[in-house]
Structures are given as C-alpha cells and as structure tokens.
Design goal:
This protein is α+β, with helices and mostly antiparallel strands and about 375 residues long. The chain is about 40% helix and about 25% strand.
C-alpha cells in the first residue's frame, strides 16, 4: 500500500518526518517545570499529505492498516475512535484554534518508532504531522511552536497530561547530540554526547500506554506535593531535605523529582567541563544508575522486566550506566556504553535477558 493506492490520488503534495527520542536523564521532571536531557533516535515517523478532493478528512496508518474517513462537520466534533487519528485530529484542531485555516486533507503515516516503548511515538507523529501541515499550507510557525502545538494536541485530544520534553526533542534534537532543556523557560543547549560513548536502547518487551497507566496519577501527586510545599512546581525545590515533611507517597514522589533535576544539572556541568577522560563517562553513568534507582523506589514506575534488563546492563563490562527511559510501566531502557562495543554489548545483554525469561529487542546499538 502507498499514498496513491489508499487515496486514489496522485503523489502527495508534501512529505515530512520526525524522530523518536530517548531520554538520558530527567524523567518525570518536564511536567514539574524541570530539566531534561534527551536525544533523538534513528527511528522516524513519516507523513505524506495532500489536499482532499471531497471535503472529507482521510487518515491512514500503514503500521496499523487502519483508515479513517470523516466529514468536516463530524471532524469538528471529534467523532473518531482510532487512537492514532486523535493525535492527527488534535494537531489540526490546535492550529485551527489559533486562526489557521486547514482544509480537509489526505494523510498517510508510517513509522519505525516502536509503539508503546517509551520512545515518543506519539510526539513523533504529532511533530511530523505539524511539519507536513506547515509545509503544505505555508504556515509561519517555528520549530518551538511546533512542539508547543504538539503538546497541546496530546493533552487536549489524546488526554495525556504530558510535559513538553517529548515534543521538543522530536522537533529540535538529533542523534549526534543531547538536548538540554529547561522546560519552564524553554532555554536549551545542544551538547555533544559524552566523548568515547555510544547509546544502546533495548526494548523490554513489556508495552505500556501513558493514559492507561499511572502517569496521570503521578502528575497529580506532584502537583499536590508542590501545593503543600507552597511552590508553583517541584522545580522550585532544590534542597531534597525540604520534601521530608510531606506525607507518603508524596514525599517519595517529590524526592525523585528534586534529585532527578539535580542529576540533570550535574550532568550538564560535567559535560560542559568534561576533561574527556573515562572518569567523566563514569560520572555520567553513575547519574543514570541513580536515576533508575530513584524511578524504581521513589517514583515506582519501573516493572520487574525493566529492573532485570537494567541490572544486566549495569553489570556488563563496557556499560557506564543504564536506566529505564520514558514514563516507565514497561517500555525500553537506555545505556551509555563504550564506543565501538555497542553491538557486542547489546547482543550479549539481550541474550542474558532472553535467558531470564523475557523477550526483548535491540532498538539502537545493533
């Protein structure tokens, strides 16, 4: 199948793409106005778009083999059940809400970003869709605005109370650098990956969905903790001792956010002043290891499969650090490993993980 056969139309007018992302540090900090450190992955989502000739919107997902045909009046009411279509619908609607005219379109989407693995397949779909619409209708919106529209679409139309990290990473990051982002001010810096290291991403085989998991619950807990501490967001607490007065589980939730923000800032300082010795890699890796322990024990978003996979990674020679990546409750792990060893390490770890009774998949590093 392709655009022409699905829509019985000539070649699409535009094609746009956006990558998935993996987060090295700064998990569950973005919706707390905190700091994050993601990078893009090679896997991408591609959309092809052309104008519809029958005043209907038509969406097709190659991966799901699902087609949505909806009339303009029904489209305005948001009458659609297919999950992927709600993300596309949301992107169009948020543009309309600020005054842009988006005529009915045909949109064909295909993606190599794994679904349900914590690698921001939804953000990649949103950013690719908005990029394609920007090009098709010549809209005067920049890459930061693309990310902001994408976040708004996910919150309002997919009903996931996400932060801005995923969309900013998909819109601004690349595979050769880290994106340091202050999610409150949107101050950002493009930083080199730690020299002498490569990234390995392994899927745990345990899928998860954000809206159906504890993600929204964790966000609500953080908001409650911030209110009790008398601050706008947990980002405003830098001394971890200040959270000790909170009742459980708010104490542990807040402790994760405060320590995680501090880990991102420490990593930023280490990268900007790195001496290009192994010690700087080890320091970065130790921060990743501490992040996973915090996500497991204080934030309670890990699962046995992720803990097993991270434990194998952390014990493997050549691995500087490893942690779950994404919201948790399943998904994938990310590891910082010695450059040149990524393929051997990934295959060795996957073999041990499968031997432990799980079914994983190497996504980056093979």
């Amino acid at each position: 199948m392709n655009f022409q056969t699905i829509f019985n139309q000539k070649l699409p007018s535009v094609e746009a793409l956006a990558p998935g992302r993996v987060n090295l540090l700064g998990e569950h900090t973005d919706y707390n106005d905190g700091f994050v450190l993601p990078t893009a992955i090679p896997q991408q989502t591609i959309v092809q778009i052309g104008l519809s000739d029958d005043r209907m919107y038509h969406f097709y997902s190659e991966n799901l083999d699902e087609r949505v045909d909806i009339r303009e009046e029904s489209f305005r009411a948001g009458e659609m059940q297919e999950e992927y279509a709600r993300y596309i619908f949301g992107c169009i609607q948020v543009l309309k809400e600020v005054g842009y005219t988006i005529s009915p379109i045909n949109l064909y989407v295909k993606s190599s970003v794994p679904l349900g693995s914590g690698l921001s397949s939804s953000a990649a779909l949103e950013v690719a869709t908005l990029r394609g619409i920007r090009q098709l209708f010549n809209l005067p919106i920049n890459d930061v605005e693309i990310a902001q529209f994408a976040q708004k679409a996910e919150i309002q139309y997919a009903h996931v109370q996400c932060g801005i990290m995923d969309q900013m990473a998909s819109s601004l990051a690349d595979t050769e650098h880290m994106l340091f982002l202050d999610t409150r001010t949107l101050e950002r810096r493009i930083l080199p990956l730690p020299e002498g290291a490569k990234i390995v991403v392994i899927e745990s085989g345990v899928p998860r969905t954000l809206a159906g998991s504890g993600y929204n619950e964790r966000r609500a807990e953080c908001e409650q903790a911030a209110q009790l501490l008398g601050v706008k967001a947990l980002r405003d607490i830098t001394d971890v001792n200040l959270v000790e007065t909170l009742p459980e589980p708010l104490r542990r939730r807040a402790r994760h956010v405060v320590t995680e923000n501090n880990r991102v800032l420490e990593a930023l300082q280490n990268v900007e002043t790195q001496t290009r010795h192994v010690s700087s890699l080890q320091q970065f890796g130790e921060l990743m290891n501490a992040s996973h322990a915090s996500l497991r024990d204080d934030y309670e978003v890990s699962v046995p499969a992720l803990d097993t996979l991270v434990d194998i990674l952390q014990k493997t020679p050549g691995v500087f650090g490893a942690r779950l990546t994404g919201a948790g409750f399943g998904g994938a792990t990310v590891a910082l490993v010695a450059a040149g060893e990524e393929k051997n390490i990934a295959e060795q770890v996957l073999e041990q993980y499968n031997h432990a009774g799980y079914t994983g998949n190497i996504l980056v590093g093979a």
